[in-house]
Design goal:
heterodimer, A: 257 residues, mainly alpha, 79% helix, elongated, B: alpha/beta, Rossmann fold, Alpha-Beta Plaits, 2 domains, four-stranded antiparallel β-sheet
Amino acid sequence: MAVAAQVLRSEWTKVRSVSSTVWTLGIAVVVTVGLGALISALSKRDFDRLSRQSKIEFDPTFTSFAGMGLGQLALIVFGVLVVSNEYSTGMIRSSLAAVPQRGTFLFSKITVAAGLAFAVGMITSFVTFFVGQAMLGSHGARLGDPGVLRAVIGGGLYMTLITVFSMGVATMLRSPLLSLGILMPFFFLISSILGNVPATKKVGRYLPDQAGQKVMQVVTPLGDEAPYGPWGGFGIMVLWVVGALAGAYILLKRRDA
Amino acid sequence: MIEAVGLTKRYGAKTAVHNLSFQVRPGAVTGFLGPNGSGKSTTMRMILGLDMPTSGRVTIGGHPYHKLPNAPRQVGALLDAKAVHGGRSARMHLLSLAQLAGIPARRVDEVLGVVGLQDVARKRSKGFSLGMGQRLGIAAALLGDPAVLLFDEPVNGLDPEGILWVRNLMKRLAAEGRTVFVSSHLMSEMALTADHLIVIGRGQLLADMSVKDFISANSADFARVRAPEPESRDKLTAALVEAGAQVLPEPDGALRVTGLTLPRISDIAHDADIRLWELSPHQASLEEAYMRMTQTAVDYRSTADRRHGFQAPPPGLPPTGPVPPNWGEAYPALPGEQPNPYTTQRDSKDVR
């Protein structure tokens, strides 16, 4: 355990001594809050023109999280860089020579970055919610309304898990370009296409972000056939993360550094 | 003490290290010599438990690396001076490594002083020269005040002052009773720094002896002899071989003669009615001895530039002499190896 404490301290030094940390996390906050506020303001303006069904379906909480789809990309970059910087610089050899217990190294490293992503994610989620509701004005929800607090906390957890998932994938792939080249288009485009096109919907809704975002919904849209609830969807995302971490651990353990 | 026994590493069909056994003793600088790609770095990574050997084992003080109690306090290594995040300051880089090994932060400032980087400690390492990078890497190796030190090519990119500094540092560390294992592809540097030499080529052990023994075994005297025309050169070669000499053609058309004194060579040439354009005494340097030893084990070898398609040599360039028949010839292929396609079709008359 002493080793784990050493790795945690070392990783904290690493993560706070590069400027990419501030940049990626800062962009995640600004984009998520800013875009959420904008969409909320536009929704309020157009609310009266919505159809009856759209008015019933309107989910003020989820609307304020509209920036998360873009903001999560910055968190993916953060997660990928934390891991693949070790490989692209060659630091990984010094690190693993200092900590031959590779599992301890990997999970302590992920713990530090996940802790940071959790703190930033929670703050972002709450700020986004309150700013978004302020923009929506009379159409907004309150934190005390049923399911809202769960959705807001879920938003912070979602951002944490996306980061951890990216770290797992980056550990497996090692190259920052390859990791970002796969993760960015996947979460920006491919996943939402697969999750919304009728032909692929049945499979697409089990993808990590499609399932995980369910936790941020308060009002279930009419005709939503998802066979899982908010926490069920979140659980599916957790399984994806566990899978990525298991793959990362096995490969790191077996591979030559 | 580092001990390798039958160490072998294969990557697919390529054998990087083959059945390597050696010992590195404390209190001396041991040079680890070999051409590029001969398996030095792979061996170093196996010592540090980063790469798993295909077979055989390597231990430090009797333990495999991953079983060493508190490994970073016992073994320090410089593997790659560029293995630093450019956006991180030198001090933060070393601090993260120190914390990883449970070493107090004040030690970071000590080693920064030892390598002379205290004034740039808070600058991003992105702007460091190669020499400064080497110093930073050496500082990282010294962090844990370890009894065993590994340095992979520590003088690469250093200026003469830096090379002298590294040389003295290695000697001082060894004099303190530490085990110092330094790889290099420069024989001349190792002759000045090391007490003991381990030479490998193509992953196999070529020599394991003290520098003194290596020098006395390998520095042979020879004479360089040059005859004017190819015909007289062939005649002279025959006459010298008959007199018991060993004759090797040099790339520039001269002959390298061993086993005869200079006056005797002159007499033989005179008797054979051959004029000499050059007859000079030479001592083979250690570099040459090392090149001879590893010449069948070089992975990357240049061939003569035939300049096909170029009509005439540019004016003012003197024509170079004919190339001796076996220069640039393919070395014997190892079993199962593809012959080098670039050395098979050559025509010495065509070479300019």
